[in-house]
């Protein structure tokens, strides 16, 4: 890591691999001899379309996306999908099951209520979203149009360790803060979507992976820009796509390939999270917020139990080059987001800093 860079533990936008930023910088004013920046290119030009196609193909390969599913690049981030999912899937007078395991699932369910009936299939609100409901505790509605859950709860630091069995009801999952961190069996899902600023690219776009058989049933008042059927038909180019963000995703995917793909990322994230959780479990000062069985490898939430001390820790850490460790305002405490681009060295250095802080407190 070049020594003028901080370790950024932000939940998103978050770190990008340094080599990706350096390639983007090198190619900024003249992409591959084209005499122009990717930012300046027509999205219909041959040179841009080759970037687009390669990025899509590399994402398909990285996640082993089957031919039954289509990859879409949509603007508006993950939040746009909170509306697009019910508009496209709910149908007239339909219902959907939502598992409420944190802030983003709550927001998504409120949006869905505008367009149909929302059944709360499970909720972890009773213990402040510190755990994930078990399969037998999911209240499944056989006539639900889809089952919705947020796979990794960015704010609370919990993650689903299993894929819910919904007895044939299409699964929809918000994987914003974990997609590309491990292999996923895409064939089990109706829709996977992810805002890209956590693990994939700069902000402003979502990757949507959709079972094509689910498209084409949108409510009649669905904005055209939100229609999955239109997005599939126009290959994500009914209007100008977030062209530069797609290019950046392409660079990240090339980097990912050199790191052993999603299998390599899974090994790395397991090792990084273990370092941090092992220390938290041994520490007399810090403790983890999430229940052990539900701990996220991407967002590690912890606290001292003293709000003033928490604030001092985040401030001292920031001064030492460990940025953005304050927890989300809904939760307090601390949160270390350790996505793909956070090097293992960053986590090792953070643990050393925490040990020193503990010794001196
Ligand atoms: C960050 C995040 C979102 C919101 O993403 P936007 O791109 O800001 O809309 C939604 N869901 C999860 C799980 C997230 O981590």
Short key terms for the protein model shown above:
binds pyridoxal-5'-phosphate; 34% helix; seven-stranded mixed sheet; 2 domains; Aspartate Aminotransferase, domain 1; globular; Aspartate Aminotransferase, domain 2; 361 residues
Summarize the topology.
Elements: E1 7-8, H1 18-26, H2 46-62, E2 69-75, H3 77-89, E3 95-100, H4 103-112, E4 117-123, E5 147-150, E6 152-153, E7 158-159, E8 171-174, E9 191-195, E10 205-211, H5 228-233, H6 243-258, H7 261-282, E11 287-288, E12 299-303, H8 307-319, E13 322-323, E14 334-337, H9 344-359
Parallel strand pairs: 1-13, 3-4, 3-5, 5-8, 8-9
Antiparallel strand pairs: 2-10, 6-7, 9-10, 11-12, 12-14
Helix pairs in contact: 1-6, 2-6, 3-4, 6-7, 7-9
Pyridoxal-5'-phosphate is lined by residues 12, 77-79, 104, 150, 154, 174, 176-177, 195, 198.
Please tell me about this protein's structure.
The protein has helices at 18-26, 46-62, 77-89, 103-112, 228-233, 243-258, 261-282, 307-319, 344-359; strands at residues 7-8, 69-75, 95-100, 117-123, 147-150, 152-153, 158-159, 171-174, 191-195, 205-211, 287-288, 299-303, 322-323, 334-337. With 361 residues, the chain is of the alpha/beta class. The strands form 4 sheets. It has a 7-stranded mixed β-sheet with strand order 2-10-9-8-5-3-4, with helices on both faces. The protein is globular, with a radius of gyration of 21 Å. The two termini are 30 Å apart. The model has no long low-confidence stretch (mean pLDDT 97). The chain binds pyridoxal-5'-phosphate (PLP). Pyridoxal-5'-phosphate (PLP) is lined by residues 12, 77-79, 104, 150, 154, 174, 176-177, 195, 198.
